[in-house]
Specification:
The chain has 180 residues and is of the alpha+beta class. It contains 5 helices and 8 strands; from the N terminus they run βββαβαββαββαα.
Length: 180
């Protein structure tokens, strides 16, 4: 596996959060509300700041339980309730090192590890590969089926894209007023 080295690019921050909402949300009954949480920090303690956008949905019943009705990576619901966050959604789980397991996960979804979806001989998923690599127009020829492009060549192209991708990511993070 190729190791990517970008160099020191950030100040480690333990708690950098912005909250949006609550706002009413349909589909959970009367009085349901959604709150979005945007983070860019090293809350996990792994040595680099990671960006995330998650949500919690509460209802009158869940509030009485002091709990939530639903939560997590609810990007469709976040996009509906908080359209201003839509441009930031692609950066979910990207860190100052790049997208999570950038090269390995992209190769996995391209079908270049012998399986996808955790099952042997399952088909590759170009949409997931594009999402993993934050590359919306990744060539279809990178899929394992019907191509002669090598894994090493794809890994090299991904590595070459990373500095520009990180610069775009940094601009998005700093647009929120977060410390990079």
């Amino acid at each position: 596996m190729q190791t990517l080295s970008i160099g020191p690019a950030t100040q480690i921050v333990k708690d950098q959060v912005r909250t949006y909402g609550p706002k009413p949300i349909a589909g959970y009954g009367a009085g349901a509300e959604i709150t979005a949480t945007v983070r860019f920090d090293d809350r996990c303690g792994n040595g680099h700041n990671t960006f995330s956008i998650t949500a919690d949905v509460t209802t009158p019943a869940s509030r009485r339980r002091r709990d939530i009705e639903a939560g997590g990576c609810m990007h469709d619901e976040i996009a509906t309730a908080f359209p201003e966050l839509v441009p930031l959604l692609p950066w979910h789980l990207v860190s100052t090192d790049g997208p999570m397991h950038y090269i390995e996960n992209t190769l996995y979804w391209l079908g270049r590890r012998g399986y996808c979806d955790g099952k042997p001989n399952s088909p590759p998923n170009l949409a997931y590969a594009r999402n993993t690599a934050s590359w919306t127009d990744m060539p279809e020829g990178y899929l394992i089926t019907g191509t002669v492009v090598s894994n090493a060549k794809i890994a090299c192209v991904l590595a070459e894209r990373l500095p520009a991708l990180l610069a775009e990511f940094r601009a998005a993070v700093e647009s929120l007023g977060f410390v990079w």
